[in-house]
């Protein structure tokens, strides 16, 4: 007797490729809106805010985003994989993801606030600083989760609308605060978080429910929440928070580390240069997220496409990174004294090279997490974190922003090796499809 393959697994490779390409495009567009407005945001901040103050403000914002990433990645990754189940189960997954994210972000935000209050100068009392950082961490974590919920609900294009609107509001609020209330504490943090709060509320109230209803009509799912799914959600969220959240936390905390280990001026230079790296990394993240979403229902065809997508993304990121490095001297000249053009070019160029090394690892990691094989990703990420912090402690006190960029590149090389080996072993027969009942495999 022969077994019948699941309908999703029988999806033609061309259909899978088209779906991955479409979702990648919309996700990348949303991320591009974030990155593009981020460039303008940091350029205007560098013009309007003195360099030393900018370094401190960037460090506070880095602490907020690091705490939020640590809290949101586990539940958010669960949404990408489990929302496609549809029905009442999807809505219960969303509710639990939001609750878990808020609690985790509050805890990590308090810890980040304590570090900010203890290591950075602030116009606010220490207790107030901790409260502000914690509240902003919760807000940014929920903003991250709503973006992942949209990806899981097959409405990747909505990320462009939500993220784009938040970023336009961020630019306007920065200008308003810089000229109308320049003495406002944590100007960069307020300008970034306040629009995110507004757009998160709109997304959770209107955009995500509409996407879930459309997904229900398309799939006809009546899947309900049960004990197996509850255990799978807890396990998957915890594993991804450890495996991926810590990595994102480490990367986003670099501006904070450069400021504390070197100087606020070096922190300001790195914060601006790091925006290029973030933008380039988001290209790979968009493709990896689309592949993870596709792998839930059509793993075999998705795995066959993975290596090709990773190579194309690496080439695209390398070309974009080279253009960014060439454009950096002009940008730094416009910023004026304190931003050496050739120094900035070196920092951006090295960070761009690091971004070009990452896509293979990002794609392999996404495929592994989509099939709930988190342990290999956990090991790889732990190696990366140890390598990154080791090089940071060794290089940043002496070479500042340049040392931080070299540390990122060295750690990225480690990821590239792991990703290359992982993709060679990402054969469809090595993993099992997501069951229609019970916990994810």
Question: Could you describe the 3D structure shown?
Answer:
The chain has 441 residues and is mainly α. The chain has one domain. Helix content is 83%, strand content 0%. It is built from 13 helices and no strands. The chain has helices at 13-48, 51-82, 87-119, 126-152, 157-180, 187-219, 227-252, 254-261, 264-295, 299-335, 341-357, 359-370, 374-424. Helix 1 runs parallel beside helix 10 and helix 2 (51-82) packs antiparallel against helix 7. Residues 1-11 and 429-441 have low confidence and may be disordered.
Query: First CA to last CA: what distance?
Result: 24 Å
The poorly predicted ranges are 1-11, 429-441
* Helix and strand element order: HHHHHHHHHHHHH
Mean pLDDT score = 81
Gross morphology: globular
Helix and strand content put the structural class at mainly alpha
Helix tally equals 13
Question: What's the alpha carbon Rg, rounded to whole Å?
Answer: 21 Å
Beta fraction of the residues? under 5%
The tally of domains stands at 1
Largest sheet geometry: none
In percent, how helical is the residue content? over 70%
- Number of strand segments: 0
